């Protein structure tokens, strides 16, 4: 729904226009219908005199006439009751009271889509001016107020929302409205521009062919950069040249073996093309999604590989370097990592985690080696000899035999313990340590690395501009050489 507005001083002329009195031969079914006369009666002249009489009650009012038009979307199928309800709501939201204001509502039927006109006296029956200010500003900003009113009616009455507004109704804000952000404006669909093709039939056909190929290429969501756009058209026999300044590309032209033309000649200005490329780029980024299960699967495999590499190098392994070579780049917020072309951020200290895990593995291995050496020593040990005891002077031998018996008993017990519980290589324990660390790390906080994605996009854009400038420089060098030859 679109509400137009104009103000003036002539009641009679406005009422006459609204009733289409100037179109004498208008067919009956196309003549306006008077929907409502509020606090006025009679013909055009009578209604104008009545409104003028009330308006003269406020000497400071120089333009008492307000002419409103209310148009609905041609794609929207509404009943007459729905349309009239919306029209009445416009007056109500403006603060117009039926008991104290004069207005005329007429319906125009001379177009495919019926629309409505309102002639309103801004001075009420008490001689007071209708407050038409907006946001603490004067009446000049009534158009902004009417945008908010129209948007509110659309939302509350379930009508089709009108695109292109810069200010909308928002009941969540303190004022009840808000202006669109730059991001919201950028997302709006560009208005279709009328393309004027050449009058020469042959040239017009050639222009149409180029235009169709450009549009076809832009429908491919994978075409998301100037370089890709240029390459795709060159495959179709259309050469693309970009015009650049210090800020980048600002214009585009096309050339075939039959015709050369600017983008504006076929409704393909660079700004419009670039908007489509940006949207395609967003679509590609959105399609580059990855599930958590897939992230964990890739992460586990890569961490196993890295830990194996560190173990093969030994205690002197440069963990941070091995991580970097295998796609883990350390940042201030964690480690940047990529899965299926999606840049991720792992919020975990991978380097210290791997170093700690490998240290625990080495400690277990060292304990195993110590225990193994001890078992070997026990197994190789022989029991002490129990000497015969002489009849005389036997106290010393008895003492030695007693110590030997104690030693032999302990040695026997240790050998039995070794037989029952032999030392095992810490393969399983080490594997459990590594598995537990990797499992814990795979469950850590992992988010999409937006800054990295943005950096890659900017780098890609830089590389495109660089390549274009290099190509342009080569063309200029070639032209100079050809000039020298001539």
Along the chain, the helix and strand elements come as EHEHEHEEHEEHHHEEEHHHEEEHHHEH
User: Quick one: biggest sheet?
Assistant: 5 strands, antiparallel
Strand content: 15-25%
CATH topology of the largest domain: BirA Bifunctional Protein, domain 2
Poorly predicted spans: none
Helix content bin: 40-55%
Radius of gyration: 43 Å
* CATH architecture group name of the largest domain: 2-Layer Sandwich
**How much is the average pLDDT?**
85
What structural class do the secondary elements suggest?
alpha+beta
How far is the N terminus from the C terminus? 66 Å
User: Widest sheet: strand order?
Assistant: 1-3-5-4-2
Shape: elongated
Please report the total strand number as a whole number.
14
CATH class of the largest domain: Alpha Beta
User: How many distinct folded domains?
Assistant: 4
| Tally of individual helices | 14
Biased composition (Basic and acidic residues): 451-486
Domain MobA/VirD2-like nuclease: 19-159
Organism: Flavobacterium degerlachei
InterPro entries: Endonuclease_MobA/VirD2 (IPR005094)
